[in-house]
Amino acid sequence: MSRRITAFRAAALTLGFGFLYLPIALLVAYSFNASRLVAVWGGWSLHWYGALAGDDKFKDAALNSLKIGVMAASLALVLGTCAGFVIERFTRFRGRLVFSFMLMAPLVVPEVILGLSLLLLFVASQAWLGWPPGRGIMTVTIAHATFGSCFVAVLVRAQLAGFDRILEEAALDLGARPLSVLWRVTLPGIRPALVSGWLLAFTLSLDDLVVASFVSGPSATTLPMAVYSSVRIGVTPEINALATVFLGAVIVLVALAFSLIARQERRRLAAG
Question: Which architecture does CATH list for 55-233?
Answer without folding.
Answer: Orthogonal Bundle (1.10)
